[in-house]
Amino acid sequence: MNDKPKGESPKSATGATMADVAALARVSRAVVSRAFSVDPRPISPEKRERVLKAAAQLGYQPNLLAQSLTTKRTNLVAVVVNHIHDLSDLDLFDCLLNAMQSLGKQVLFIRVNSVDRVEQFLRNGVAHHVDAALVWSDFADAATVRQMFRSDFAVMLNGRPDPLSPAVVPDSTIGIRAAVRDATEKGVRTAALVTGRESSPVEQARIQIYLHALSEHGVTLVQTVRAGDYTYQSGYQAGASFLSDKVPDAVFCTSDASAMGVLDACRAHFPESRPTRFRLYGYDNLSLTDFAAYPISSVGYDQEEFVEHIARFVAEPNSFTPGDPPVSVPTRFISRLTG
Amino acid sequence: MNDKPKGESPKSATGATMADVAALARVSRAVVSRAFSVDPRPISPEKRERVLKAAAQLGYQPNLLAQSLTTKRTNLVAVVVNHIHDLSDLDLFDCLLNAMQSLGKQVLFIRVNSVDRVEQFLRNGVAHHVDAALVWSDFADAATVRQMFRSDFAVMLNGRPDPLSPAVVPDSTIGIRAAVRDATEKGVRTAALVTGRESSPVEQARIQIYLHALSEHGVTLVQTVRAGDYTYQSGYQAGASFLSDKVPDAVFCTSDASAMGVLDACRAHFPESRPTRFRLYGYDNLSLTDFAAYPISSVGYDQEEFVEHIARFVAEPNSFTPGDPPVSVPTRFISRLTG
DNA sequence: CTGTTAGCGCTTTCAA
DNA sequence: TTGAAAGCGCTAACAG
């Protein structure tokens, strides 16, 4: 109890500052700094004790913004997305948020649904000072991201790898091949492919893998339907293609959302719980495919595992060496009623 | 083109600073500050021109962290949630993110799925310095939030209003009454209520409104099923209650997710596309209820409108005066196949 | 309109 | 081990 701190009085509006604590504990500000430092710094136990006590008394909180001015580290991580409409995002982001927070990072969500927004963020915001940027949005390549955020550390998750940045990508090959194999084992000989937004590199790659897997297993691709984007609605429209007499043995969709649309479009005409005229395969393994109404066979990866890789890169940036190949997370085939 | 800036050379690692620009443009740092200020400050057009040009040349970006050290404003807004599992979140957060960014704010997502996490955030992070906290999580009251974030500006969206903080709440009454009225008009006399996590004040209030609306319309509540939380799975389990011969005329669920579960549970036994033995009403008006498989009559509010109110509070904190009542956003009833 | 001068709250040499 | 002092990058009076 120091009844007369000699520094200026704590301004409750702003919160107590280091100077207030230093005055109360009768030490220098430097000592306060050391007392709060995470890595060991020279300080006598008694003084540390005094400081901590004084801090508690004043309700002192180190100002991390001020801190970051000198340390150049903000404990902020940016998550850059096109939007968060996609159902698949929900499952992932909760997991991600949790992981980042466990690392002591706080997550800045940045939505860039068009390229012209990029400019806006260059002007605006604290975003420049994040420790790392986790990039889902495919609006930009790694180079752009690295300059957009002053951070030199971007983790690419948008299928646009870059030798200078770490990347994590699901390895669709395994899962898709398993799906196609499953189909052939059930007698599928012809197939249709329902694709999403083809400007996305991820989608491009996925399509190639399907094409390859199909030909590899001797399945003839008789039809390709561009469904516009990964939405239910686009899938529903695409579904109209499969109502005629002449339908392929199987329909592969590059997203579960589209597959759900296809399924419902068929149900609108033939009220079975699954399309009996063809087998249906989705992609993403949305938690929704566990709902009874959408028992869609799908391809997915372990999101915890995916996020773990990201977290590792964030926690130990040095675990990445320029030139390292993208980390790949295996996918697997999940069989459900439609497949 | 100044071929010899007289200040220190720009350190490309950190990025150019105000001093670099000032040197290049041959003005004082204060002038640079003014040139970049949003609100009008005295500066001659020529000098502003020179500064902007120099800045462009150097790729200078004002450091908003440093800025906030003096201005006490960070342009950061915290969104505090329990988690982002709920399907209803998806629709809302994208909208919110967009709105905040339009205001030039960046959004910090903070996930506090348990009360003990609060402590962690008190120690950690930049969160203390946000300009505003938008609170969905019901883990804490306004007072706690106000001290958790040093910000004195919290917007309560969790149904825990506080005289000192603005709040926005959906006015469930309108929509729920409309739903019940719709039911009675269709001959409903008895009803069951499927409830969610009752520790949530929002849920508590919602239940009361249902009870009131039911009795008001002369509908007898014959059964209440606690479905645990707002999930499909809990709804599915609850659905078992409605498979016997003796079922109520209508089942009201306090969330669409539960209603979807109830619907599928019934379908598992009676393969109609809607439960023919009772009418089914949900709540939230999830975009999923527009999917053909879940044509659930529901109660919802206009999310754009909801978010607009929030945005207004953030943009003009003074539009709130302590003691003001919560802003309420009307809900409406959306009739679909099941209702 | 402009430049000078203090800070904002904290970290980090560098002597003591 | 400690404290003084010099910044980090920027804003905000205050004279001129």
UniProtKB/TrEMBL annotation, chains A, B:
Gene3D superfamilies, per database record: 3.40.50.2300, lambda repressor-like DNA-binding domains
Source superkingdom: Bacteria
Transcription regulation among keywords: yes
Domain HTH lacI-type span(s) in chain numbering: 16-71
UniProt key word Transferase: no
Swiss-Prot/TrEMBL keywords: DNA-binding, Repressor, Transcription, Transcription regulation
SUPFAM superfamilies: lambda repressor-like DNA-binding domains (SSF47413), Periplasmic binding protein-like I (SSF53822)
Name under which the protein is recorded: LacI family transcriptional regulator
Organism: Mesorhizobium liriopis
